[in-house]
TrEMBL record:
Organism superkingdom: Bacteria
Keyword Lipid metabolism recorded: no
InterPro entries, sorted: 6-PGluconate_DH-like_C_sf (IPR008927), 6PGD_dom2 (IPR013328), Mannitol_DH (IPR000669), Mannitol_DH/Oxidoreductase (IPR050988), Mannitol_DH_C (IPR013118), Mannitol_DH_CS (IPR023027), Mannitol_DH_N (IPR013131), NAD(P)-bd_dom_sf (IPR036291)
Listed name of the protein: Mannitol-1-phosphate 5-dehydrogenase
Residue span of region Disordered: 1-28
Species: Intrasporangium calvum (strain ATCC 23552 / DSM 43043 / JCM 3097 / NBRC 12989 / NCIMB 10167 / NRRL B-3866 / 7 KIP)
Catalytic activity: D-mannitol 1-phosphate + NAD(+) = beta-D-fructose 6-phosphate + NADH + H(+)
Coiled coil: none
Single Gene Ontology BP annotation: mannitol metabolic process
UniProt keyword NAD present: yes
């Protein structure tokens, strides 16, 4: 057996001998590539890659993963043959698991490899985790055909369908599908794993729109050969810290800069067909259902909604992590109030909702996960519309000016006005100005931007939101 020599860089194990991961000593042989993935961040490595690792037929299903913006991840993962350690942090301690399911990792601009994989009939699944902004949607939900990079991708593929250089996610998917059609490689499933309602239809629309703009006959081919699967994904996965890397070094004697920390809980609910086959993900607990909708609402409203509330309201009180914020009785009461408002509109049995809520509290309190509120606060422009607005609207339709629901909107306004975690947002140019001016102006502008039309309740909603923002500001300065 050969082991990699300890590579340069800070020694995370404070003096313990460490080596790098290698398939020969630590993992399984690389499985043949049958899945292509776009966006190889921490969440994907804790979730779909882990389900593929745990599938009973894992030896037949290798993943070729492509990075998002940074090619550094491709270099770092390739240097350890695609292996990385998933550090599962539970209340009782941390358990490392070496994941072998990434058979190859490429930088995003390696379009030759992308086209080669998609032209291979053995490849039958494409998964994506690129964040909502990555799908280049316009406000109407279709492809943003006015965006410069989309315009460039369309022109590139019209000019050269075989080698045209594309950069957006829809552009890369369409480039790959052109190669697949040309090779006659057969049907394929596209499986978005982003935390967006109805994500299958979301990706179907942008792919069809871009295909049509490139070549109308491709849109027809996509309709006949590409299945878009809808999913609900869940696993709390913070960013990697030096402490995670040191823990792996302590337990395994391995220095893994690509360590991914995550929680023990995981959920994946999917709906749709896989015409070219798929791994036995059920073996790892994935569920295949007819309608993902109720699971999606339960997760987006109860988990993600309360996460965003913790991120904005909790950080404005000076808390740094989810565990800190949920331990504050005042913040906990706000979360319960949010949950009460959201739960009233879930189409699931009440005892299931109750169990889910208490499981969430346990997940948030997990002392070995350090989930930064600032991480969750990022990109509110994409989160608030899907996490807060549906609940506010449901409450208004039920005739209620709901303090529990409106507090999430108010906390975001307080954040835009400078309270708590700093604003980091792909659409900062658009949303930071929403919070400017007097509080009343900011509240009106934000509600309008969120398309919350309170009708006869408008003044009452504005008053409530203003009072709630003031409440958060007051606590902050005390
Ligand atoms: C979080 C999610 O950062 C965020 O916005 O709410 O990433 C959350 O941790 C995951 O959806 C959990 O599955």
């Amino acid at each position: 057996m050969t082991t990699s020599p300890y590579a340069a860089g800070p020694d995370p194990s404070a003096g313990q001998p460490t080596r790098r991961l290698s398939r020969q000593t630590d993992g399984r042989p690389a499985a043949p590539v049958r899945i292509v993935h776009l966006g190889v961040g921490n969440f994907f490595r804790a979730h779909a890659a882990w389900y593929t690792e745990r599938a009973s037929d894992a030896a037949e299903w290798g993943i070729a993963a492509f990075t998002g913006r940074s090619p550094a991840t491709a270099r770092a993962l390739s240097a350890q043959e695609g292996l990385y350690t998933l550090l599962v942090r539970g209340p009782e301690g941390a358990a490392p698991e070496v994941i072998s399911s990434l058979s190859a990792v490429h930088p995003a601009d390696d379009l030759d490899s992308l086209r080669r994989y998609l032209a291979d009939p053995r490849v039958s699944v494409v998964t994506t985790t690129v964040t909502e902004a990555g799908y280049r949607r316009s406000s109407s939900g279709g492809l943003d055909t006015a965006a410069e990079d989309v315009v460039r991708d369309v022109a590139a593929l019209r000019g050269d369908p075989v080698d045209g250089v594309v950069t957006t996610t829809p552009g890369r998917l369409v480039a790959g599908l052109l190669a697949r059609r040309a090779a006659g490689a057969g049907p394929i499933a596209v499986v978005p794993n982003d935390n967006v309602p109805d994500n299958g239809e979301m990706v179907a629309r942008v792919v069809r729109d871009l295909a049509r703009a490139v070549d109308p006959s491709l849109e027809t081919w996509v309709g006949e050969h590409v299945s878009f699967v809808t999913t609900m994904v869940d696993r709390i996965t913070p960013r990697t810290t030096a402490d995670d890397r040191a823990e792996v070094a302590r337990q395994l004697g391995i220095d893994d800069p690509e360590t991914v920390p995550t929680e023990p809980f995981s959920e994946w609910v999917l709906s749709g067909s896989f015409p070219g086959g798929r791994p036995d993900w059920e073996a790892a607990g994935a569920r295949f259902v007819d309608d993902v909708g109720p699971f999606e609402q339960r997760k987006l409203w109860l988990l993600n909604g309360s996460h965003s509330l913790l991120a904005y309201a909790g950080s404005s009180l000076g808390h740094e992590t989810v565990a800190d914020a949920i331990a504050d009785p005042e913040v906990r009461a706000w979360v319960e109030e949010w949950w009460d408002a959201a739960s009233a509109h879930l189409s699931l049995p009440a005892d299931e909702v109750r169990d889910y809520r208490s499981a969430l509290l346990a997940r948030y309190r997990n002392p070995s996960i350090r989930h930064l509120l600032a991480q969750i606060a990022a990109d509110g422009s994409q989160k608030i519309p899907i996490r807060a607005v549906p609940v506010v609207r449901e409450e208004l339709e039920a005739g209620r000016v709901s303090r529990g629901a409106l507090r999430l909107v108010a906390a975001w306004i307080a954040h835009l006005r400078g309270a708590g975690a700093p604003v980091t947002d792909a659409h900062a140019d658009e949303v930071v100005p929403l919070g400017e001016g007097t509080l009343d102006e900011a509240a009106r502008r934000t509600l309008e931007w969120l398309a919350i039309d309170a009708g006869p309740h408008t003044e009452a909603v504005l008053e409530e939101v203003t009072r709630l923002v003031e409440g958060l500001g007051a606590r902050r300065s005390s």
